[in-house]
């Protein structure tokens, strides 16, 4: 179901997001910490890319720089050829948990970024995303009445409702229990296939990356550099016990430097 | 395990009523046993209340006290909430203003009575000024700390949707800080009710505080003194209960664990 004003992007177009020689250095009181070093990355429209890397390597820093929350020390980020210079509703960051506003209902949260729309347009958009993330019947509920997985679906709906060009997910399911996490992967995939947004997802879950992504970008330890890029050439739905899946999974583990036999 | 209705009823209503009854009994028999002629028994206090009602002075005094509290508290809210929001929003301003606030805050409003009489003379404005002074500081402090303790995640989420500073303050910071602000308001309303009684004893010639001091001064009517004290207590309890109802509104309830 397509809504007016929400175009389904053309996959064959030029790079949606371009990261060029990106570097971020944090200035401390008595020392400087290089977080990102010369990152170059091109992501096409509608692509699903996962970022993996050792803990503390700068994955979130990269996401923040791409989202405009952080000014890069060197290099640049552009989306559709336009330089990213600050936060903007055309690119939305989805945080781990607790990102939804507890004082607003499900409807209020989804409609948060839609203040400029007319009342009827807003209601239509809200209804569409309530249905997409399957929160029907909870429209008037507050986040405190929702489970962790429902809150994350709500956050994704709130992000998608403003029709962003790019969605940045920062370990979106990191705080959920393992069963909910697996279910949420399926949900995210379904939503992505329905909406075809460009998604960049930071994760530390190897399976999540191989199950979801078109490409997995492997970052080195700090300062983060792109160490490897793995293309996952398995169509969805992916059989997680197929030989190809297991080969790619092992390959990714090797790239990260983890033995796949423990 | 869910508790039965009877258990809840017992704990919520019956036991507190028993406690009140025991207190009244202890009071009654203490007066009897000591044979005091100064301190009134519960029964003579009850007769005192009826006498006040009969003379139609009680409602006038209650409404005078409430009017002063409402005006003083409203003024404190109108000044305190925006000031607190500003201080929380601009940490550098907070640093500049904080020493003055911290210096003024511990001064009891009672200590301001002579000064307020110099400023406003005997009358309503003096009492209202004292109520304002007593209640404005907790509101400022609650609003400022409410703003500064808004999780950065909410600010970032708000910014992400392209909100300007004014929109962020109105749509994210204020609702996120609202539960703390309401706590500050509730504390302040309690203080306002304490202060009005004190202020009315000195700075005006009507109201429940005046009733207390006037009953003592003109004829040592301690039955009326204690009657007025009881009414002050009951109204304070009602004010607090009304405010607790506000905390149950859904858009702020998330900030109150006890009500969740």
UniProtKB/TrEMBL annotation, chain A:
Transmembrane segments: none annotated. Pfam families: ABC_tran. InterPro entries: AAA+_ATPase (IPR003593), ABC_transporter-like_ATP-bd (IPR003439), ABC_transporter-like_CS (IPR017871), ABC_transporter_ATP-bind (IPR050166), P-loop_NTPase (IPR027417). One of its GO terms (molecular function) is ATP binding. Keywords: ATP-binding, Nucleotide-binding, Transport. The keyword ATP-binding applies. This is ABC transporter ATP-binding protein. It comes from Acidicapsa dinghuensis. The lineage of its organism: Bacteria, Pseudomonadati, Acidobacteriota, Terriglobia, Terriglobales.
């Amino acid at each position: 179901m397509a809504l007016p004003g929400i175009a389904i992007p053309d996959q064959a177009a030029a790079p949606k997001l371009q990261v060029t020689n990106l570097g971020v250095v944090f200035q401390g009181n008595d020392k400087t910490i290089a977080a990102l070093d010369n990152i170059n990355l091109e992501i096409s429209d509608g692509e699903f890319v996962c970022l993996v890397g050792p803990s503390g390597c700068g994955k979130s820093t990269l996401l923040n720089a791409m989202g405009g929350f952080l000014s890069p020390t060197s290099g640049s980020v552009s989306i559709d050829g336009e330089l990213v210079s600050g936060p903007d509703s055309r690119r939305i960051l989805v945080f781990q948990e607790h990102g939804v506003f507890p004082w607003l209902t499900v409807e209020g949260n989804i409609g948060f970024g839609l203040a400029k729309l007319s009342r009827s347009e807003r209601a239509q958009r809200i209804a569409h995303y309530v249905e997409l993330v399957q929160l029907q019947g909870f429209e008037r509920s507050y986040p405190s009445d929702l489970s962790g997985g429902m809150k994350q679906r709500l956050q994704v709906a709130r992000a998608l409702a403003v029709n962003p060009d790019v969605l940045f997910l920062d370990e979106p399911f990191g705080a959920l229990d393992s069963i909910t996490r697996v279910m949420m992967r399926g949900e995210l995939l379904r939503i992505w296939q329905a909406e075809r947004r460009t998604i960049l997802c930071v994760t530390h879950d190897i399976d999540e990356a191989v199950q979801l992504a078109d490409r997995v970008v492997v970052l080195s330890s700090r300062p983060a550099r792109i160490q490897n890029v793995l293309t996952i050439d398995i169509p969805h739905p992916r059989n997680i016990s197929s030989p190809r899946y297991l080969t790619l999974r092992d390959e990714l583990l090797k790239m990260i430097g983890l033995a796949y036999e423990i | 395990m869910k508790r039965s209705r009877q258990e809840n009823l017992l704990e919520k209503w019956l036991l507190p009523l028993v406690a009140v009854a025991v207190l009244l009994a202890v009071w009654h028999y203490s007066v009897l046993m000591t044979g005091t002629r100064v301190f009134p028994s519960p029964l003579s206090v009850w007769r005192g209340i009826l006498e006040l009602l009969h003379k139609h002075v009680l409602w006038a005094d209650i409404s005078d006290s409430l009017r002063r509290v409402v005006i003083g508290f409203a003024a404190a809210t109108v000044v305190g909430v925006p000031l607190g929001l500003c201080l929380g929003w601009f940490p550098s301003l907070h640093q500049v203003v904080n020493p003055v606030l911290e210096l003024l805050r511990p001064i009891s409003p009672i200590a301001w009575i002579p000064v307020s009489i110099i400023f406003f003379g005997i009358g309503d404005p003096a009492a209202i000024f004292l109520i304002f002074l007593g209640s404005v500081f907790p509101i400022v402090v609650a609003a400022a700390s409410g703003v500064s303790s808004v999780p950065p995640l909410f600010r970032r989420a708000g910014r992400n949707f392209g909100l300007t500073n004014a929109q962020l303050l109105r749509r994210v910071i204020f609702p996120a800080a609202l539960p703390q602000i309401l706590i500050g308001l509730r504390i302040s309303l309690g203080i306002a009710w304490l202060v009005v009684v004190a202020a009315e004893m000195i700075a005006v010639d009507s109201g429940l505080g005046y009733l207390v001091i006037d009953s003592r001064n003109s004829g040592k009517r301690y039955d009326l003194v204690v009657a007025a004290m009881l009414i002050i207590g009951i109204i304070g309890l009602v004010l607090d209960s009304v405010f607790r109802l506000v905390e149950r509104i859904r858009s702020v309830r998330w900030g109150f664990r006890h009500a969740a």
